[in-house]
Amino acid sequence: MGGVMAKTANKHTSEHSEQTFDCVRNTSLFSNLDDKDILCFQDAVQPHLYKKEKILYVQEDTADYFYIICSGWIKLFYTTQDGEEVIVDMLTSGHVVGESAIFEEGCHTSSAQVIEDVHLLSVPSRILKEQIRANPTLALNMLSSLSKHHRRHYGELSFNAMLSAPQRIGCFLIRLCPAGKDKKIVFHLPYDKTLIAKTLGMKGATFSRALNILRQKTGVHINDTRVEIDSVAELVKFVYGPLSAKYIPERM
């Protein structure tokens, strides 16, 4: 009996290790590292399951850990001196959170909150610092990852400034569509519409009117969290116009 229990425990441990390794491997920060380099992080990784509304860290907190998202959604935001919350980004599986603090005197420059139940891995920041010093590939990955994040983020801000409210919602929905899907598709919103509106810089009434226009123009139907798009290609054409033939939007 003891032997069976030991084998079962070993199997679970092995499966957990493989899942952890895959989660680390699937982030851009670690994607092209050798397995032995990833194992340096895997041994220090701690898995966590956090429920919606959990505050992961607050801006100006000391960054003892950074986090790898395996599933779920996290909101990055900062609070102005007037107490207003400004959303910086919304991140999901495959993203790393809090790693840039190692360049900011070891403190977080924004706050992070779980907005949909999340499975993530915490890794001590000191290990990241040590490995960056010892591994040029990781150091370049870190710079590349931060550069891509800022380019995507500010590129979206600049592009969205030129779009109408219905087009901004369409752009958001396109990013949620799986790559390669250009026809009819059905999926669920990752978080509530109130937060989506705030992320897109819209008031509730504006968001509702824009949704109605989007439905009339493109055949996008949203019922609670369920989204039905008659044609992803038509939605892309509506959002990007003449650019749609060349533009392939980055999808989650």
Rg, alpha carbons: 20 Å
Secondary-structure content class:
alpha+beta
Largest sheet: 6 strands, antiparallel
CATH class of the largest domain: Mainly Beta
Integer average pLDDT: 84
Q: If you consult CATH, what is the topology of the largest domain?
A: Jelly Rolls
Helix-strand topology string: HHEEEEEEHHHEHHEEH
**Count of individual helical segments:** 8
Which CATH architecture of the largest domain would you pick? Sandwich
pLDDT below 50 for ≥5 consecutive residues: which ranges? Answer: 4-13
Share of helix among residues?
40-55%
Q: What count of domains describes the coordinates?
A: 2
Report the end-to-end length measured between terminal Cα atoms: 46 Å
Give the name of the CATH superfamily of the largest domain: Jelly Rolls
Strand content: 15-25%
3D shape: globular
Number of DSSP strands?
9
Q: Topology of this protein?
A:
Layout: H1 2-25, H2 35-42, E1 46-50, E2 55-57, E3 65-79, E4 85-91, E5 96-97, E6 111-124, H3 125-134, H4 136-160, H5 165-176, E7 185-188, H6 193-199, H7 204-218, E8 220-223, E9 226-229, H8 232-240
Antiparallel strand pairs: 1-6, 2-6, 3-4, 3-5, 3-6, 7-9, 8-9
